[in-house]
Amino acid sequence: MKPRKTTCAHRGVTAQCHTTASVTQRAFLDSTQCVLHDASVLRFLTAGESHGPALSVVVEGLPAGVPIEREAIDADLRRRQGGYGRGGRMQIEKDSVEVLSGVRHGRTLGSPVAFLIRNKDHENWKDVMATEPQPDAARERRRLKYPRPGHADLAGALKYGTDDLRNVLERASARETTARVAAGALAKALLREVGTQIRSHVVRIGGASAEGAGIAWESLADVDQSPVRCADARAALAMVAEIDRAKKDGDSVGGVVEVVARGVPAGLGAFAQWDRRLDGRIAQALMSIHAVKAVAIGAGFEAGETRGASFHDEILWDAERGIARPTNRAGGLEGGITNGEEIRARAVVKPIPTLLLALRSVDLRSKEPQKASVERSDTCVVPAAGVVAEAMLALVLGDALLEKTGGDSLAELVSHLEATRAQQRELAGPR
Ligand SMILES: Cc1cc2nc3c(=O)[nH]c(=O)nc-3n(C[C@H](O)[C@H](O)[C@H](O)COP(=O)(O)O)c2cc1C
Questions:
Q1: How far, CA to CA in Å, does 229 sit from each of 96, 131, 431?
Q2: pLDDT of residue 37
Q3: CA atoms within a 13 Å half-sphere pointing along the CA-CB vector of 153
């Protein structure tokens, strides 16, 4: 039983919750206050295997009236499939959503939105991935015997007690990020309505890195024109060369992406409890992306090398602009709350683990040493990871926005936000 989103905007059990609850329910609400209210307002669940018939995703909590364009969702799916260094699977899949519910005549209804994204490659895997029992030959044909270091293969085998690694890798695969990108496109559509936009770019691939730290928002507008989604053309060439070298060696290469959100309302998130801090929620969302091994907000790891006076972003005021910050090393978050500056977060993506240059592994049945199994694979997924990072940031920000404003319709949300913004202008705006 989850309180209506309008009643949990301030994350307390409200009078409405209690007055409408029975005595038993009331005791339950009192004892589980945190659990009930820590549920996200905007949430999503994905399902589907890499070579199953389809991926699906249900997004719940969007207000009614958000304009949704299927083409915009598909455009993000295409961006996820691109980037120099992707492998053969991307030639087969031409991802596109089928909208099953929650949208009517181009706008959300306030009910759960469900999408289906078909796996075209499933045609070649029908018996291997069949839900009905099949002859042993179907299982054996694509059985993965030798766990690949760096994948979920071994840990998943130990978790589920199986030596058929196909059962692990099908869901552990980053194919799942397709569904996240579709869900994220909905959150982006919501955010767009309040003036918040999200972009991402590649900062590093292997030894090749883009110039400087704070690449300006404007320079990110055409980043999709770059084969590696890098705003620095010279660095992009070096990145392509890194990928070519890794591919030639049968190896893979990782890197760093930055995701940037502009026009984020100030005051999203909270410092009152550890799990409400928005920096923590963003870090968790980015870290949950397959192959991401580190996340930094703003200047991140540099904070450990710098003294306070040269690290923190000073607070200035002038009559024309109101409060202004000359720098943004905090990456738009102070005390776990958005401060109105751009949100900037970086994610480190490890070199993907499926390698032609197979690493040492073991046959889980015979225990004999073997080279790790090789599945068709990419060489570098850093540019694609940026698109997934956009989706995850959009979902976290959409959730934090709804938590702040409530609102069952977009109009209600916007009017609540306007009231907040008026209050903020009074406090920190120009005179
Ligand atoms: C968009 C995307 C595509 C990926 N494609 C591949 C791939 O083709 N081959 C591979 O070995 N790993 C690929 N990965 C990485 C693996 O999914 C990841 O290494 C694996 O889930 C284990 O990493 P973890 O320990 O961080 O979960 C991809 C990751 C992302 C984000």
A1: 21, 39, 41
A2: 41
A3: 23
Q: What's the 289 CA to ligand 1 centre distance in angstroms?
A: 9
Q: Ligand 1 centre from 246 Cα, in Å?
A: 16
DSSP strand E in 153-291: where?
197-205, 208-209, 255-262
Cα 134 to averaged position of ligand 1 atoms, centre (Å): 29
DSSP 227: T
Q: Which residues are CB-contacts of 171 (< 8 A; sequence separation ≥ 6)?
A: 49, 50
Ligand 1, atom 19: nearest CA belongs to which residue?
291
Separation CA 92–CA 80 (nearest Å):
14
User: Of the candidates 393, 26, 368, 336, which has an alpha carbon nearest to the alpha carbon of residue 200?
Assistant: 393
Taking CB atoms and a 6 Å cutoff, what residues make up the pocket around ligand 1? 87, 150-152, 172-174, 177, 289-291, 352-354, 377-378, 381, 384-385, 388
pLDDT digits (tens, 9 = 90+) for 148-187: 999 999 999 999 999 999 999 999 999 999 999 999 999 9
Residue type, 366: S
Query: Which pair of structure tokens corresponds to residue 227?
Result: 């084969």
Query: pTM for this structure?
Result: 0.91
* Beta-sheet strands, E only, within 229-349: 255-262, 292-297, 316-318, 322-324, 333-334, 337-338, 343-349
